[in-house]
Amino acid sequence: MAVRRGCILLLFADILLTVCLLFQCNKTALERDIPVFHNMLQASDGGETMDVYSELKPKVALTFDDGPHPVYTDQILDMLADRNVHATFFVLGRNVKTNPKTLQRMQKEGHLICNHTYDHVNLSQLGPADACSQLCLTSDAIEEVTGVRPMFFRPPFGEWKKALNECTDMLPVMWTLDTLDWKIQDSMHAYHEVVDHIKENDIILMHDYYTETVTAAEYIVDYLLEEGYDLVTVDELLLE
Prior knowledge:
Layout: H1 2-39, E1 42-45, E2 48-51, E3 59-65, H2 72-83, E4 88-91, H3 93-98, H4 100-108, E5 112-115, H5 128-146, E6 152-153, E7 171-172, E8 177-178, H6 187-197, E9 203-207, H7 211-226, E10 230-232, H8 234-239
Parallel strand pairs: 3-4, 3-9, 3-10, 4-5, 6-7, 8-9
Antiparallel strand pairs: 1-2
């Protein structure tokens, strides 16, 4: 009887050991796969690799109006390049004419270039012909420098007449979050306007024409990246 009981105990011990080994193997495999799933989720599409994990991040678009400035725009571009972040620039035709190399750099580094009229005028206060001319001249200037005609425009002050839609096939793009950098030229104020109000799918309004905006943009980009936001251009936000 004692011998039989001992055999049963040995058999039970062998079964328990096998179960433990199987559990440990599966646990090790699962732990090995977790970082792959969370950090390297990728899908093959026509030979290109896509980061699936980035699709799960909340998207926001950082936009800059009134440039390109001969100094500040390149400083902002340096900061964006360091962080591998893309933004949207609504440029003035008159500034394109005087700063073509900065515009070429925007395009080369993957930013979206859009129309903000030629002279930063209130389109709602112009006749149809003059309003259309403001947009056409700017689109012509952008295309001359980059070879690409813009798809989007932002009317200064957010105002334009509906009749303007008849002379352009560009889509108007407004904003949802104003940093007020144009009004209150203080970098920390602009930063807190974003930190205190940011939400998914926001279009952030800034102006690459003030030295305070350069500092504020750096703080804002770092904050958004730390919080897990995906900074995209407006076409990615609006058309996808």
